[in-house]
Design goal:
The chain is 42% helix and 12% strand. The protein has 13 helices and 11 strands. The strands form 2 sheets. It has a 7-stranded mixed beta sheet, sandwiched between helices. The radius of gyration is 23 Å and the shape is globular. The model has no long low-confidence stretch (mean pLDDT 97). Bound molecules: pyridoxal-5'-phosphate (PLP). Pyridoxal-5'-phosphate binds next to α6 and α8.
Length: 451
Amino acid sequence: MDTLLREAAARAETYLAGLGERDVGPSAAALAALSELATPFPDRGEGAPDILAKLDRLGSPATIASAGPRYFGFVTGGSLPVALAANWLAGAWDQNAFSTTSSPLGAALEMACLSWLREIFGFPEAAGGAFVTGATMANFTALAAARHAVLAQTGWDVEQDGLFGAPPITVLVGGEGHAAMLKAVRMLGLGEGRVHRLAVDGQGAIRADALPPIKGPTILCLQAGNVNSGAFDPAANLIPAARDAGAWVHVDGAFGIWAKAAPARADLAAGYELADSLAVDGHKWLNVPYDSGLTLVRDPGSLHAAMSISAAYLPDAEAREPYDYTPECSRRMRAVEIWAALASLGRVGLADLIETCCRHAAMMGQGLAAAGYEVLNDVRLNQVLVSFGSDDLTERIIADVQADGTAWCGGTRWHGRAAMRISFSSHATRDADVAKTLDAILRLAGANSSS
Ligand SMILES: Cc1ncc(COP(=O)(O)O)c(C=O)c1O
């Protein structure tokens, strides 16, 4: 075992050390070699060192170098060294974070993290929380609590009686709400087709005057950080108005809500602390390894009602039982990397991580605009959207940047147009990486424009 783990560590170290130099995307040859993984199921297994060597030989070159300094696709954080190291240790521990009995350590880490996270996002000390796989499941978990609460107000017990015959729930989502939010709505039986989409402004944020009159059970879903533009819905206006009218206000803050942790950006996220529930990712901007998401719910009772299985296990348990707050029962101990990341960053380091990414986005936006290209969003957070002219040209340049290997930027559609989306979400990116990426983009854009 010890030789094997040392070998794994050595291979991982070599991999990480090479990330800054290699092409960010895998080569066609590396991808083709993956076919070697699909052998017939062997009668007898291979030795562990051979398996590790094979995984490294085939796997490492075929990875997207998203842990490195110049991956700007989707919204993808790297892994802070301490979070990765904690993840390795936790792998050895192999705890089942299901309950306080199956892992007292897991339960204690969750409590410690919840306290820090409530403080960071301005939620009350009593708020409940759940550690899940990502923002999609965090939205799902929070909306299950919302579904419980708005129906309980009408005297309907959704956990016992389901949705058949229940009073209808109005779900309000911004016109630019993330697809993962709508997926959570679908999974909860609330019906994507029944969602009312609210009018948005040019940056994709819900307009302050877009809230319809609220009647009956209603869930308003806001977004802190549009996946394309980084825009925030006007929480300080919308949340008090909706809550006063009896609605549950949920916030999909997958990455953007971390702006609250950076004093210079916190005004963007003002007012979100008034929400009933919040979904946020750890694996995006907190830079912990996949997979990691979190739900916070102001009223822990609603979350408990939606997720609890206590009756089946320990009906009179006094401690917070993790299984009463999450969709899963058995699960890995996700809080460990969040705890390690927050403990190592502290308030100052966290603010610096967020601020540096925003500063890098501003550098990129200014560089592209100075070169005459059209930056499509107000770059106030970590996202940059750029068009190079026609859709065709923009898509060609995105493909060329990905093939070039210096950096990796993805494509998206913004208000009917093709755009390159450049997301700054990693601790590993330095100013020099931003400059190198800008040079590569301008070189490839120039070559395409003149061809
Ligand atoms: C606003 C928003 N919500 C939800 C998601 C989905 O997050 P996850 O992939 O972690 O489930 C994303 C992903 O980019 C997002 O930007």
